[in-house]
Amino acid sequence: MNFFKKIFGVSTESKEPTEEEKKAEEKKNFDILKYDGVKALKVNQSAYAIECFSHALEIKEDSEIRDYLSRAYMAIGELSKAYDQLQKLSESHPDNIEIFIRMAHVAYMMEDYTVMSTACEKALMIDKDSVRALYLYAKACVGTDDTTNAVAMLSKAIIVDPEYADAYLLRGEVLLGDGQLDEADNDAGFLLDKYPDNEDILMLKAKIESARGNSGEAIGLFSKVIDANPFNAEAYRLRGELRLQTGDETTGKADLDYAAELAAADAEQGEGVEEKVKEAYSNVNPLGL
User: Fold this and answer.
1) Phi/psi class of residue 213: alpha, beta or left (left: φ > 0; alpha: ψ in -120 to 50)?
2) pTM (two decimals)
3) Structure confidence at residue 270 as a pLDDT band (50, 70, 90)
């Protein structure tokens, strides 16, 4: 045995490392794993980042590492695993609203609106006037067809922040879906005064005019939407349907054909799912742990 130790350059008199040496080695390994994981995450090598962060957590519990690990799981679409990491973070940091906001975003991507509502409720227990939590709670209510509470949450968010454009837009869309056209138009009008060329606001106004039966005005507004975004398949489809209804078969059919092409291209690229992930990931802020 001693012979082999000598061959491999291991001293026969090597001693067991002390506790201090073991701790120093663990700290060094932890720091290396953390550094490599963060570096990998920044260059979109998420699978390797997950390995690094997971091994680091085997060495010791660390909230910052769990934060990074949740982001890495989000980046590869492993949403339930990302949520599990955030759940563990929330248990150790129950007063950190950013964790619950992130949990709500992830639940939204999973289309689990019950879990999303719970995360929003916990965020609002920390700050009852958090406009982000109120807005996300409204989106969860929309997901469960709870129009009344969705409007209530958005209205409260607007009271807290009268310039919160996203809340006006979502409230307008909810009111439109509920057939409250005048109320929806109030929100659309407020937004158009401030953002006259915004694609989403123009789309809301176009749908309102279409629902009112003002086909000519709606067609003009859908055209403005298309000017803002030439790849908006829904705008082409809705404009095409209105053109057909008004007897303009040639341009109506052309709109519908092009809308179908755009929708097929989006489906092939999986853009809907990708955009959802990008939307939530772009809303991820450092937790400040």
Assistant:
1) left
2) 0.83
3) low
